[in-house]
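Researcher: Please predict.
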Amino acid sequence: MKRLIVFCTVGLLTWLPSAYAATMDEAIATLQQQWAIIKYQTPDQERQEKAIAMLADQAAQVRQSYPGKAETLIWQAIIVSTQAGIDGGITALGEEKQARDLLLEAEKINPQALNGSVYTSLGSLYYKAFGWPVGFGDNKQAKEYLEKALAINPDGIDPNFFYGELLYETGDYAKAKSVLEHGLNAPPRPGRELADKGRREEIRELLQKVNKKL
C-alpha cells in the first residue's frame, strides 16, 4: 500500500500517492509552490496554521524519501521556520530550534546547495528567533550567515531581502536601502513566480519604511 502525502492548497486538501513526485526536484518544486500559496495567498490565520502544519508533515516525508540530501533538509527547515512565524508564542520556540538543527545538518552535507539557501535561512532564523535566555536569536550571528549567503548568491532576491531587513531592524537605513533595491532587481526564478511576486512586494513595503527613516 502506497504512503499518502497531503498537498495543501487554499481551502482544499488533495491526497496523492507518495510516488506522484518522480524525482527529488519535483518533490521540492511542489513544496515550494505550496509554501508560496500558504505564505502569500492564504490570509486567514486559522487556515494558514492548518495548511503550514500539513505542509511541514509533507516536507518531513520528502526528506525521509531522499535521505542525506541538503536540499530536502533546507526546504523542511524553511517550512518549519515559516510555521514558527505563523504559530508564534512558545510553540514557535521548538519549531525554531528544529529548523536550525535541520539547516545545520544541511550545511554539513552541502553548504552550497540551492545557491547558499542554508545561510539565507540560518540568517533569517537567527534574527527572528527568540533571543537569550529563551532562544538562540543573535543579530551578529545572523549578519555573518547572511553575508555568507550573499557571497554565494549576491543577486538573489531572498538573501538581499533578509539582509536588508536585518539592516533596517538594526538601524543601518542607508545600507538597507541599497541592499533592498538590489534585491528588487533580482533575476526571476523559473517556477517561483508566485514567491518572487510576494517577495518583491515585501521589499517594496520595507523600502517605504526605510525611506521614512532617511
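Model: The first strand starts at residue 4 and ends at 9.
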